[in-house]
Amino acid sequence: MANLAIVGTQWGDEGKGKIVDLLCEHFDVVARYQGGHNAGHTVKIGERQFVMHLIPSGILHPGKFCVIGNGVVIDPEYLLNEMAQLESLGISFNGRLLISNRAHLILPYHRAVEKAAEEALGDRKIGTTFRGIGPCYEDKAARVGIRVCDLFYPEVLHEKVFANVKTKNTLLAALYHAEPLDAASIYDSLQAVADKLQPYVADTAMWLDQAMKAGKRLLFEGAQAIHLDLDHGTYPFVTSSSAGSGGALTGTGVAPTRLHGVIGVAKAYATRVGGGPFPTEVKDAAGEELRRRGYEYGASTGRPRRCGWFDVPAVRYARAILGADALAITKIDVLDVFKEIPVCVGYRYKNSDLKEMPAETYVLAEAQPVYKNFPGWQKSTVGITALESMPQAAQDYLKVLSEMTEAEIAMVSTGPERNQTIVKEGSSILKLIKKK
Length: 436
Ligand code: GDP
Ligand code: IMO
Ligand code: MG
Prior knowledge:
The chain folds into two domains: 4-91 and 204-434, Adenylosuccinate Synthetase, Chain A, domain 3; 104-199, Adenylosuccinate Synthetase, subunit A, domain 2 (Orthogonal Bundle), CATH 1.10.300.10. The strands form five sheets. A ten-stranded mixed β-sheet has the order 9-7-5-2-10-1-11-15-19-20, with helices on both faces. Strands 14, 16, 17 and 18 form a four-stranded mixed β-sheet that branches. It has a two-stranded antiparallel ribbon with strand order 3-4. The chain is globular and about 65 Å long. The termini are close together. A hairpin with a 2-residue loop joins strand 16 and strand 17. The protein is of the alpha/beta class. Helices cover 34% and strands 20% of the residues. The structure holds guanosine-5'-diphosphate, 6-O-phosphoryl inosine monophosphate and magnesium ion (MG). 6-O-phosphoryl inosine monophosphate binds at residues 8, 12-13, 38-41, 126-129, 131, 133-134, 223-225, 228, 239-240, 273-274, 299.
């Protein structure tokens, strides 16, 4: 009865949503464990396209349960809007969505502080999604956060909201000369959402425990990726949560002994949104071609994604930290037109070779990628469903990625649709998934 995590190995947008959607049929519960509506997971089903920001992608599968775990940060108004939007598309939440009573709430002052702080950073800005994610996690760590459970205790809520708004207004005025916020209106709007959210709120850790006891299988849906992880990413150009497989446990209350496998999702090239080092970024026509073919625009903010070549040290690092037994390589079809495909096999910094990603982000920012070029296949791979049907050069490219990252490739995605996927039937991770 295997429980599995799907986690990003690069800088986000690897296609985690598609892989979760694809594997959903083998699981009963899909749980988000970190991040918030900074995520954007696109799932294409036939002619219909859904972009999920906060709600686990499993909601698109009738009969599957979805959990928003304690590690997620929730903008309550945003959540209700996303639910309404999905309901208008025919998705039913009835008894299928549970929200942790321990999850922290993103409130308007988090967005205000983030906006002011990002502006103040000038050239050093992180390039956040402006969703209030960072300041909400700051409050959580500072032990002044407001949690979902607080919504149902008006006196507690009132006291916390007024105390926090007072502190934030002092900060906003003194540091950023920004406008103050009105505590009463924030409190009123929270009261208005509390009733609507109540039917979905539960102690999800205990619920998950019972679900596992009843033989239900869990799929953890990662948001962001390991190189945006607060501990392991390209700090400070990261998000403020644990996007790796460890986060799946702390962010849901499921014990480490109950996570049985991890699939790392990697694009066949690389992208990044926002600031921070990205050694393999290509700013010339090839980068533009990757963006155009991969339609690389942020699902949350619409920003053009920075595009570049596959970075082996980055994904090898991810494999190690995530314990990714297997990789799903996505968007290989985007590479179909290239005559040669460079792969970064290490970095050169000043006069030394770097084989692994350095902790010093400023070193990584100056490091030059060392490339090995591989022949392209210049044939369409769109929709191919068997490895043997892939052009030989594409098979060789995948073999190289597997060898260099020291990971088994269990899946290859050849298009956004569910059925546009190669699944390596003999892979150990699939055996694990199918184990009864
Ligand atoms: P996530 O945040 O990791 O879930 O990824 P996003 O949804 O933000 O970005 C991935 C994008 O690539 C989405 O628009 C997907 O529909 C699309 N996609 C996923 N797999 C493939 C693939 O194999 N080929 C192509 N061309 N598009 C894909
Ligand atoms: P999914 O789940 C790509 C990036 C932002 C910014 C940094 C910090 O779709 O892969 P934040 O608002 O989180 O404080 O911003 O992280 N970022 C993402 N980039 N995909 C995402 O999510 C991202 N979520 C945050 O662009 O650089
Ligand atoms: Mg995304």
